[in-house]
Amino acid sequence: MPKSIKNFKDHFSNQSKGYSKFRPLYPSELYQHLSDICCGHKMVWDCATGTGQAARGLSEYFEHIVATDGSEKQIASAHGSDNVTFSVATAERSGLDTSSVDLITVAQALHWFDHDAFFKEVERVLKPGGILAVWTYNLLKIEDKIDLILQEFNENIVGEYWPPERQLVRDEYKTIDFPFDVIAMPAFNMETYWTLDDLLGYLGTWSSVVRYRQAKGQDPLEKIQAELSTVWGGASDEKRVKWPLSFRVGKL
Asked: Residue 197 sits in which domain range?
């Protein structure tokens, strides 16, 4: 097994099916914008693809998407159109040819990488003038009463079970040294409509929730489920859920 795969920090294999089912979709306007700012459209490397959400969105705008992830289970759960190729590889060792890629995307994963090694790999595989687009999102927003419960859950119930890399997400990646010519991005949000069961399913994919369950042998969601039910309304009621996206985008 290559050293890069052996040392891969896998926080998501155990919940790969839930990750595929409950993780929200990025807006199609984002993929259109990335296409608009790219000079070439032959190949994209979607790094840390998970189950292929961003790869599927990008496939409408680029000829070929190479979607990689260090987790074999995530790749086994991934799916996409015919112009998407899935494979197991880490961010630091993609296996791609030098100067072969027009766009590299990293959705909600940069905080897990060895940044220096990854940026060297970016510089190797990007074509001259190619673009690296990285984005992240933090806590979701629904309604004030619900948001307060989720904030308490995030900070004081499962907060200590977040891996330390999670702080970079809270900082919106602003503290990461980004060695590329920065490209400004417009505002984008992820949005969906969920029932309470959908919300609880999503919370169950958090790495902090998984680690809490492993450490304590109990489900931390039980601590907030009744309170959420009280403020939510009917079990079948759907509420608008929003995640503002934060970006680091640059050109080689």
From this structure: 3-251
Pairing of strands 101-107, 181-182: unpaired
Would strands 126-137 and 181-182 be described as parallel, antiparallel, or unpaired? Answer: unpaired
Strands 64-69 and 43-47: parallel
Rounded CA gap, 142 and 148, in Å? 10
8-state DSSP, 130 = E
CATH of the domain at 69: 3.40.50.150
Number of structural domains found in the chain: 1
Query: Do the beta carbons of residue 216 and residue 117 sit within 8 Å?
Result: no
Place of tokens 């290559």: 2
User: pTM of this prediction?
Assistant: 0.86
Distance separating alpha carbons of residues 129 and 121, to the nearest angstrom: 15
Give 125-177 pLDDT, tens digit per residue. Answer: 999 999 999 999 999 999 999 999 999 999 999 999 999 999 999 999 999 99
Q: Answer yes or no: are the C-beta atoms of 218 and 158 closer than 8 Å.
A: no
Alpha carbon distances (Å) from 232 to 62, 98, 144, 224, 228? 41, 52, 11, 12, 6
Distances (CA, A) of 100 to 46, 66, 90: 13, 11, 17
SS3 assignment, position 55: helix
Closest residue by Cα to residue 38 from 65, 11, 1, 14? 65
CA distance 215 to 233: 32
